[in-house]
Write a structure and sequence with these properties.
CATH architecture of chain A: Orthogonal Bundle
Number of helices of chain A: 4
Largest sheet of chain A: none
Structural class of chain A: mainly alpha
Oligomer: heterodimer
CATH class of chain A: Mainly Alpha
Largest sheet of chain B: none
Number of strands of chain B: 0
Radius of gyration of chain B: 28 Å
Structural class of chain B: mainly alpha
Order of helices and strands of chain B: HHHHHHHHHHHHH
Shape of chain A: elongated
Number of helices of chain B: 13
Low-confidence stretches of chain B: 156-163, 325-334
Helix content of chain B: 55-70%
Strand content of chain B: under 5%
Distance between the termini of chain A: 55 Å
Low-confidence stretches of chain A: none
Mean pLDDT of chain B: 80
Largest interface: A-B, 58 and 74 residues
Number of strands of chain A: 0
Radius of gyration of chain A: 21 Å
Mean pLDDT of chain A: 87
Helix content of chain A: 55-70%
Distance between the termini of chain B: 52 Å
Shape of chain B: extended
CATH topology of chain A: Helix Hairpins
Amino acid sequence: MILGNYLAAVALFCVGLHVLLTRRNLVKIVMGLSLMEASTYLFMVSLAYRGGSTAPVLLSPPAGKTAKQLAHGNVADPVLQNFCLTAVVIGVAVTAVFLSVVVRIAQHYRTLDADRVRAMRG
Amino acid sequence: MTRASIRDRSAVAHAAAREATEREPRHRPWLGALLVAGVAAALGLAMAGMPREHAPLPLIARYALEIAIPRWKLTEPVNEIVYGTRGFDTFGETFLLLAAVVSVVVITRPREPRQGYFGEAAAGAREQQQDDPNVGSDATEEEARSAERREQGEQPPSGAEPVETPDATPLGTPAPETAEAMTVVVRNAVRVVLPILAVAGLYLVTWGYSPGGGFPGGAVILGVLLLVYASYGRRKISKVIRPGLIETAELAGAGLIIMTEFLGLVFNGSFTANWLPLAPVLTPLSGGVAQLFSAAELIEVGTGLTIAVFALLGMTHDWARDDQGEPGGGGRKR
């Protein structure tokens, strides 16, 4: 049942969201964002799955199948795999941006507590 | 020792441990849990309506599978989608990546212009010793300075230290080995694995077999560089990993991508259209523009991720003003 995968992705997303909403440590917030990101990868790869299908490669189809038949059903969805591929790379770069901001905040305010990073307070 | 004194000791140890680890503050956990439960319910309902494993492939996927070989001569439909059917989207994502890398570079940059990602402290040493860097020093001052250095037993701050490589350590030398590098076992393992990893990654990209082509290829390049960095230390890679070189390569990759896609508009009437002759299936040139795009993406992703990671690793410059002398500061007063 692929629905289990979908629900696992939802659970992962919610764990990340909960971290984001309730934690105050900036590194943990970045980790929460990464978890939410990872949940979308799981979701997209699960969405690409087709029961009893093969990888979308046209090079050597399984015995008794032609490349033309592959195009008409029994392969995993290549478009969603493509989404996932690019999302992973972008995710790494965006996490790097978050972490560099966190390091600068830590250097400047000497704390990782998001609640104490309020330059305009009082 | 009495039982009470043991209990006292363990209590003290506990308190010390609690003080040493950072206190973990939380923010309205129940409100957060409520909001998350709402999101989970909404997403769960949405998931019930998603297509399952027996749904037919979407039209765009079938279209991509059908045209992969006839139109692009690519046997890897994922590649065909990344660089062909959805080429414009990949184009946008590439520049999102570039924007992220530029942000990292801007956020992590030090005050002084630098040669490499590490050793910023040494880079400004000469200027720091002078009253005014713009005024040249005369012979008397030089003599006084060298005498001072001799007295303090310091090396001249010219950066002319002999470069020690971990491989110069003879076998059987007792620990610790050269601090920067890992043990001889790890170094030899890395030496064996590296060429295999690098060649395998590039091979898959060149022949168009790897789904996504340059994207995973670029990540493999980063992996190779990080393995060298982790096992041999930063000096081994300082010749290659310097901003002047890889930032130039990154922008060259971006320029190549723009050119590749724009020439489609010039020669074939639409952005991202193929303008290269297609070679037979299963040859390096089989995808036409898709393979060129993939190679440019290899440069772009490989250098972009490398810049991001090493800019973060080299982020040592402390900008904080520490006037109040807070505990744990350790910064200089200015």
